[in-house]
Automatic annotation (TrEMBL), chain A:
GO BP term, pick one: protein ubiquitination
UniProt GO cellular component terms: cullin-RING ubiquitin ligase complex
Stretches assigned to the Cullin family profile domain: 377-605
Designated gene of the protein: LOC100834318
Species, as recorded: Brachypodium distachyon (Purple false brome)
Name under which the protein is recorded: Cullin family profile domain-containing protein
Entry keyword set: Isopeptide bond, Ubl conjugation, Ubl conjugation pathway
Xref: PROSITE patterns: CULLIN_2 (PS50069)
From TrEMBL, chain B:
PANTHER family noted in UniProt: DEFECTIVE IN CULLIN NEDDYLATION PROTEIN (PTHR12281:SF12), RP42 RELATED (PTHR12281)
Name of protein: Defective in cullin neddylation protein
Purpose: Neddylation of cullins play an essential role in the regulation of SCF-type complexes activity.
Database matches in InterPro entries: DCN-prot, DCN1-like_PONY, EF-hand-dom_pair, PONY_dom
Species of the source: Brachypodium distachyon
Residue ranges of every copy of the DCUN1 domain listed in the record: 22-213
SUPFAM superfamilies: EF-hand (SSF47473)
Amino acid sequence: MSGGGPPRKRNFKIEAFKHRVELDPKYAERTWKVLEHAIHEIYNHNASGLSFEELYRSAYNMVLHKYGEKLYTGLQSTMTWRLKEISKSIEAAQGGLFLEELNAKWMDHNKALQMIRDILMYMDRTYVPTSHKTPVHELGLNLWRDHIIHYDMIHDRLLHTLLDIIHRERMGEVINRGLMRSITKMLMDLGPVVYQDDFEKPFLEVSASFYSGESQEFIECCDCGNYLKKAERRLNEEMERVSHYLDAGSDAKITSVVEKEMIANHMHRLVHMENSGLVNMLVDDKYEDLGRMYTLFRRVPDGLSTIRDMMTSYLRETGKQLVTDPERLKDPVEFVQCLLNEKDKHDKIIHVAFGNDKTFQNALNSSFEFFINLNNRSPEFISLYVDDKLRKGLKGATEEDVEAILDKVMMLFRYLQEKDVFEKYYKQHLAKRLLSSKTVSDDAERSMIVKLKTECGYQFTSKLEGMFTDMKTSQDTMRDFYAKKSEELGDGPTLDVHILTTGSWPTQPSPPCSLPPEILAVCEKFRAYYLGTHNGRRLTWQTNMGTADIKATFGKGQKHELNVSTYQMCILMLFNSADGLTYKDIEQGTEIPAVDLKRCLQSLACVKGKNVLRKEPMSKDISEDDTFYFNDKFTSKLVKVKIGTVVAQKESEPEKQETRQRVEEDRKPQIEAAIVRIMKSRRVLDHNSIVAEVTKQLQARFLPNPVIIKKRIESLIEREFLERDKADRKLYRYLA
Amino acid sequence: MRRSSKKSSSSAPAGQTKAVSKEVERIDQLFYTYADSSSGMVDPEGIETLCSHLEVPHTDVRILMLAWKMGCEKQGYITLDEWRSGLKTLRADSISKLKKAFPEMVQEVTRPSNFQDFYPFAFRYCLTEDKKKCIEIPVACELLNLVLSLQFRPQVDKLMDYLKYQNDYKVINMDQWMGFLRFCNEIIFPSLDNYDPDQAWPLILDNFVEWLRANKN
């Protein structure tokens, strides 16, 4: 520091030594030698004799005095030399010891590497980053990779050994999983790329060909169920293998190999397998097998759709056969029961085996919808089924049972395309039930109506409800009638009148027949009474729909009470004044229409156990030349004998044609109303759009035929509700 | 439809008036040679006579065209006003002039713009008191033949065959009638390649095409 003069202000500075502390190059060489020696000792398991502190300081000094590079390169070459020696010893290992040797040496190397890194920590933190060199630990791994794993002699042998062990385990041998774990972990530690390239990829390839072969073998000799069991087992095995001694990342890869080889490649063959494929499983309710198939196939693309498509085509085929089998169609109630059973069966399969999968449920629904509508008598038959149940089938059933059965029927109802046909039949059958008082439970009837209303709206059921109201009102009317007029009526026949509102009931109007005088008298009294209390109404007796209970005494004095139709009553009453009558006599006396007359006479004279009349000649059919006699010799074990013919039954061909015609007639105004509604709001529309809209509007009731729609449009054009657009004749225009 | 004006002739420049009124007089005179005295109209008999003078059969399409030109409302009858307006436009006041006017008249009617008017007129002309909206199949066939066969012979032939063969329809209405013309104008015949039944064609034509396609073999 210079003296003299006033002190000048200066920043206080500390300066480094002015002279370099030069490290003697010889000293560096000596220091390196110490470290080199230490490395060898570490590898020789002689680390205990070394002083960590001293070695650390040596390394530190080297780096400090700019000998970092020498240290690093020294480390590199020493380690490399070391590893080359190690590789020779591994290579020399025999057979099964190869892997163990490799593993042992790897353990050693790791331990050594750790110690070396600790010693060289200072270099790792200073020299290495600044010179962009690989850190010590990583260097150690890379060297191992390059000189051991990628050493030709070792590389192939390692891979072979690993794959061979895995193969043996697949074939049932027990192997050393711990050792495998260690090796694969080593590969992962060396870098995912090493694991993948040097092990995983070949492993997957070999596995693929293994499973390809095995699946081929299995499929030749196994049935579907057993094959699936084996496939499932192998799949689980592989997953277990991964969890025990492979890297977790291999899980998805190996499972997809198994899925592809064992499942995807054989999907079609499995599903179509004769005697054990999907169809057989469905038929035999093999829930476990089906469930297994579902879970396995779900893993592969298009797996589920393969099952679903097969199931759909099977259902459609079976369903189609069911609805077109003439034997089945003889008994409508049985027919519908079959349909319900099929539905139940498959519902259960979907629930138990397919996990309530919605897509399968949809496939089931669409199949049912397809084949139920193949038979155009389905609406009629379903109505007959309900009729049977409400008439007697549900006798004694609990409320829950009733609801369950009706709900199931509603499911079938939903599948119908021609709901308006169902409505027509339901009305007919309901009318018969109500009028003959043959319904098992009023609550059940009501419940059905409510369900139909919920499904189809108020319009569908308003007339049906009207029928119930009429029945109730009639009861009240009769009560009042007898209350007021009992003295006047005295001992005459007891009348029970049902007053039906025309329009609500599906009555086929027919002229009344000729009633016996006693009956006529009381009927007239009722008519007078009713019209007296109800102004402006008109009553017409529907003699084709009534019933009568009459007491008959036969030859030996046996008394029976006969329950007959009104027509039959008229016929029988004639025999009060004559023992024998010809067909013509009866026809004249009763004025019953020929078709009905023949049917009545048939049921009175030709049915065993109910033959209250005797016919000459004794042939089966009624001819206009026949003569009838009161059958004195009639016997029956029952006191009350039912001979009525008002039970709802399957329609005959001509009746069916008639009903269908009426349905078609009813559809015309509905289609027209829909067209007008649509055109009113849209004003101008092209043909296809009208057809689409109309179909959409009416589909809740029936599926309109596009040709019929066109006809209705033309009719509306003629009646000037619509016109064709003058500019573009493809369009229609609404005429206000 | 061209309606005859019910007003009497309007004023004309003085110099021409004489020539014009002479023409009108001749036209009127000609009318009365054919008209029935009691009804004051030309009746079917009168028309027949007219046709023989014109040397054209009364079933010829040109008579129909003449009716259109005159704006006749009732088939088989011509009123004075109708006669006047027709002959005036044709500039004919004698049978020979009328006859000479025919070729040009045919040309005029077959022009698409006029034909679009003539064609429905032909249909309406055939309607009667009791059949106010439709004409019977045999009549329709004849009419088609008359009116369309010159331009669309093959279509008309096939259509006539079909109409006689089918029994879905016993009469044809105006909508269907117009459909026939549209069909001939728009559809490639006999390939029928561009016919689409999902378009708004009358149902009778859908059936016709189906029948044609089925009978191609």
